[in-house]
Design brief:
The complex is a heterodimer of chains A (about 110) and B (about 450). With about 110 residues, chain A is mainly alpha-helical. Helix content of chain A is about 80%, strand content about 0%. The model of chain A has no long low-confidence stretch (mean pLDDT about 90). Chain B is α/β, with parallel strands linked by helices and about 450 residues long. Helices cover about 50% and strands about 15% of the residues of chain B. Chain B contains 20 helices and 14 strands. In chain B, strands 4-3-5-6-7 form a five-stranded parallel β-sheet, sandwiched between helices. Classes of the chains: A mainly alpha (about 110), B alpha/beta (about 450). At the A-B interface, helix 1, helix 2 and helix 3 of A face helix 1 of B.
Amino acid sequence: MSEFNKEVLLATLMNDEDLAREIVAIFVDSAAELISMAEKGLAVGDFKHAALNFHSLAGAAANVGATGIASEASYGEKSSRESNASQAGKHLQKIDDHFSEFMSTAKEEGWI
Amino acid sequence: MMGGNPHTWSPELLIMIRILLIDDEPSLLATLAAILEKQGYEVTALSNGTDAVSMLAENQYDLILTDIQMANVDGIQVLKYAQAHQPQTPVLMITAHGSVETAVDAMKIGAFDYVTKPFKVDELLLTVKRALDHHTVVMENSMLKNRLAETRSGLVAVSEQMGEVLKFAQQVAPIDNPIMILGEKGVGKESVARFIHLQGDTAESRCNSLDCISLSSHDLRAAIGCTGVSASSVAGVGTVFLDNIEALDADAQSALHGCLKGRKTSSENPANRSRAYPRIVVATSIDLQERIRQGLFNSELFSRLATLSITIPPLRERRPDIIPLVFSLATTALGGASDLPSLEKSAQMTLEAYSWPGNINELKDVVRYLLAAGCTSIKREDLPEQIVDATVFLENIPGADDDRGRSLKTFLQKKEVEYIRYIVDSFGGDRLAAAKALNITPESINDKLEGET
């Protein structure tokens, strides 16, 4: 399955494609910020901060049908709550990969 | 289904449904806002709990939809603030799929329901609709209860000022502390006390009204269920209204203070306390602070009584209530025995212009006077002489209705000159006598009437 499942988002937005494009654009900015914040949290050992950002990312990604990011962000949140920096870091790496894939798919399909 | 404008019906207004939406993730916030706005709801979308608390402090909403996990002020804190400040507004919690435990905990402390991320639109809208339907029922019940309480307590609150009084009375009704009602004689302090009584969980019990002018310390203790007095003395009494509280003698003040103090220290269970003791509502038209300075009133008792105080404005400061009060009082006096007389415009204007120093008590007397006169259509000249005399300018200043649309300043200047001229004429042109009557200097009269002879 593609990292960007636009059907999920369109269904949520009652097939309003213009609005869906706006939401994707907002998500791209927001996700980049959340990934960066989670990374900073892990770097300084602020697991609470990292967990909160992973949590927000999971919800936002699920909303736009970025299932891979959503799933890894949930794991990242769990690892952060367990103060497991190494495991959380691995999830963060996978999130980066999924996010890159999301961006390419979204660009290829003319969404961003 | 798109479009449509959701609204709540009230007898007076068609109102857009206002939803406060809080989520710190921008794309989710935008998605939710768009979904709700497409349904016609008026959405205030905020990205943090701190702003939400500020908005809740200043605005009323029909529904609050908040994410749980947010930095700083989280959704649980928003829920608690909403419960304290807008207890009738339902709160829906937004939670991630798989972490519903927190949402369930939120429901235990009063959240209406929760929605999970990612959203299924149908489920989301159904939950929102259920919450709003619930809110509508709660608000309608509250409105009916208010109207019933207004009717049963004999209150009329058409004016904005009395609307505010009743709003505050509603807010304090569930609180078990004593309430102090302030206001001039005859403004309806006892009616407001009855309104409070009918609002709270005391509604099904009795409300005892006592005048402190003739109340002994012993009778007071029995009336309010002080320690040492048989509990049967207050059985079935939900509220004790103590009018003219300033008239209590020192012993009675001390007894009341001791009783209230005792209640406070034994307040382990407020629910039990409210069942064991009646609520105390006191009223005065006197400046109690002055009494305290004179050593005539117990300052500690005042502190206990005045934590919740309501000031009822005099009738002259809430003129929109005057005519509805006339009809309300006439209806009560006639008891449906015959048709209400009509009030001609000149009579309405006169009644609204009069200063009513005796407030509603004086208005009651006037209504009795008019009913006794048996007029079917009441004109200005049918009103008691002192009212007609006190408002003489109304019909004697020509063209009172011709100046609409001018600035207030222009109108007042013109009417000031006309009134001065009228008074001067009524003294046969004697400006000195007119100046005395008007309580201004003869020079002022000359200035105002400059150019006239």
